[in-house]
């Protein structure tokens, strides 16, 4: 109990100071009471867990907004997804006597953390969004991430909901001992790949043969099959198709079809909405709760977050090739002229290894004449500039400014001088909250008044 009391006091002080209390209180509690997560987890009736490389935070936030329409929940929807963040989320809903005040927890859990905490939680539903290479220094290659999620899934007796469009997530679902359900896009949305971009999971995990694709959605997600064995994309249990600004979802199990509004843009985010709505259906939420939850959804910091600076600034988090490519494609689809600030750090939370910059498709920027200038910043500002040079972006339109605040000012200045309507800011994790603060200071409205476009995280 002493760990809980001290951690709750720390949480109160941090929030009184206007700071985040999403992780540090849990870190202290774990040191003082190593088994506190087990004790609190045992009081839950159910835990719903979201894991995967991209889309965890957005999917969790979407599902949380829907679940809250029917019951109070404990959630780490701000994205603190390591063990200390999970415990902080539970302690927030715990009395001073150690009694959990909710029966349901919705938790985003980091892929490497999942096997460490799965046995401490009564996981009724585990959602696997996708699996891409991410933070090579921490996870290693793709096989390590895949194995961590499999180890976590082996510890649960509940339902596994996986992305059928991703052969890696599909492989995990095939080997789950409990019930497995799938979600995915309608085949009609798949397209031929017009760019030669490095893709993860190109080979069948059952036999090692190169997979055949009849079409792609994004990354390695698409309509695939193995020509050498029976492995292939199944017909998803929950099928999503775009209808203007709405998502049509067909449940092949009960033959029902319903339409929900899209509170976000971009194909990555449509996939996140599909995952969240499918999970809500598995959790037996009413359709009214789903619709109200989507209508009241508030996106997390740095997910194509728009600030009313002059000109307008759009902030997005990037952290790996697949997610970065999704942001780049979204930016390039914006027709107007634009200036971009690319800020890359290599702190522990960002990943020390920045070789992923060479796997991301920055050639998209070089081929887009609407991008009139790019400013690079952060600890690896020069590495980013070199990558852009090799991508073919004109050096005379490239600026390097290691001080991030100065880089933001330079970006806005360049856009203003050329009467450009918007500036895009892309940062790694340790800069995204600082970027939000700095852009808020330079805005006519505060961050709560900001709105959001497409996101991939």
Q: How do you describe this structure in short?
A:
InterPro entries: Lipid_II_synth_MurT (IPR043703), Mur-like_cat_sf (IPR036565), Mur_ligase_cen (IPR013221), MurT_C (IPR013564). By secondary structure, the protein is of the alpha/beta class.
Walkthrough of the structure:
This protein is α/β, with parallel strands linked by helices and 457 residues long. The protein has 2 domains: 2-295, Mur-like, catalytic domain (UDP-N-acetylmuramoyl-L-alanine:D-glutamate ligase, 3-Layer(aba) Sandwich), CATH 3.40.1190; 305-452, Alpha-Beta Complex (Protein-Tyrosine Phosphatase, Chain A). It is 35% helix and 20% strand. It contains 16 helices and 18 strands. The strands form 3 sheets. A 9-stranded mixed beta sheet has the order 2-3-1-4-5-6-9-10-11, sandwiched between helices. It has a 7-stranded mixed beta sheet with strand order 16-15-14-17-13-12-18, with helices on both faces. The longest helix has 16 residues, at 267-282. It is globular. 50% of the residues are buried. Residues 446-457 have low confidence and may be disordered.
Number of helical stretches of at least 4 residues:
16
Radius of gyration over all CA atoms, rounded: 22 Å
Class per helix and strand makeup: alpha/beta
CATH topology of the largest domain: UDP-N-acetylmuramoyl-L-alanine:D-glutamate ligase
Instruction: Give the uncertain stretches in residue-range form.
Output: 446-457
Residue-averaged pLDDT, rounded?
Answer: 90
């Amino acid at each position: 109990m002493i760990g809980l009391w001290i951690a709750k006091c720390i949480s109160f002080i941090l929030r009184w100071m206007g700071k985040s209390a999403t992780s540090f209180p849990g870190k202290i509690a774990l040191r003082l009471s190593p088994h506190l997560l087990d004790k609190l987890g045992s009081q839950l009736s159910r835990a719903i867990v979201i894991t995967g490389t991209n889309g965890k935070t957005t999917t969790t936030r979407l599902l949380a907004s829907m679940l809250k329409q029917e019951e109070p929940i404990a959630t780490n929807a701000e994205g603190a997804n390591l063990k200390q963040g999970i415990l902080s989320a539970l302690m927030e809903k715990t009395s001073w006597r150690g009694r959990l005040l909710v029966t349901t927890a919705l938790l985003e859990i980091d892929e490497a953390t999942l096997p460490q905490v799965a046995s401490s939680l009564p996981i009724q539903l585990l959602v696997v969004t996708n699996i891409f290479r991410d933070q090579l220094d921490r996870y290693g290659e793709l096989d390590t991430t895949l194995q961590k999620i499999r180890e976590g899934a082996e510890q649960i007796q509940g339902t596994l909901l996986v992305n059928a469009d991703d052969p890696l997530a599909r492989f995990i679902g095939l080997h789950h001992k409990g019930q497995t359900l799938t979600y995915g896009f309608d085949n009609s949305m798949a397209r031929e790949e017009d760019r030669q971009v490095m893709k993860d999971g190109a080979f069948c995990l059952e036999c090692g043969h190169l997979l055949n694709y009849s079409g792609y959605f994004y990354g390695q997600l698409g309509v695939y099959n193995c020509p050498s064995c029976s492995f292939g994309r199944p017909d998803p249990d929950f099928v999503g198709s775009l209808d203007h600004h709405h998502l049509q979802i067909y449940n092949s199990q009960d033959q029902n079809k319903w339409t929900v509004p899209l509170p976000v843009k971009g194909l990555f985010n449509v996939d996140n909405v599909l995952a969240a709505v499918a999970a809500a259906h598995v959790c037996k939420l009413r359709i009214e709760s789903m619709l109200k939850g989507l209508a009241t959804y508030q996106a997390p910091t740095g997910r194509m977050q728009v600030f009313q600076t002059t000109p307008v600034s759009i902030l997005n988090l990037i952290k790996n090739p697949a997610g970065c490519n999704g942001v780049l494609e979204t930016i390039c689809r914006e027709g107007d002229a634009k200036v971009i600030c690319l800020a890359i750090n290599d702190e522990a939370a960002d990943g020390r290894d920045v070789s992923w910059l060479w796997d991301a498709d920055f050639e998209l920027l070089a081929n887009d004449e609407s991008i009139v200038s790019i400013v690079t910043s952060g600890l690896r500002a020069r590495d980013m500039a070199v990558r852009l040079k090799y991508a073919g972006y004109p050096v005379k339109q490239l600026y390097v400014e290691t001080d991030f605040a100065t880089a933001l000012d330079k970006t806005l200045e360049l856009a203003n001088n050329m009467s450009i309507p918007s500036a895009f800011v892309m940062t790694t994790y340790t800069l995204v909250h600082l970027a939000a603060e700095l852009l808020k200071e330079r805005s006519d409205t505060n961050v709560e008044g900001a709105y959001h476009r497409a996101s991939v995280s």
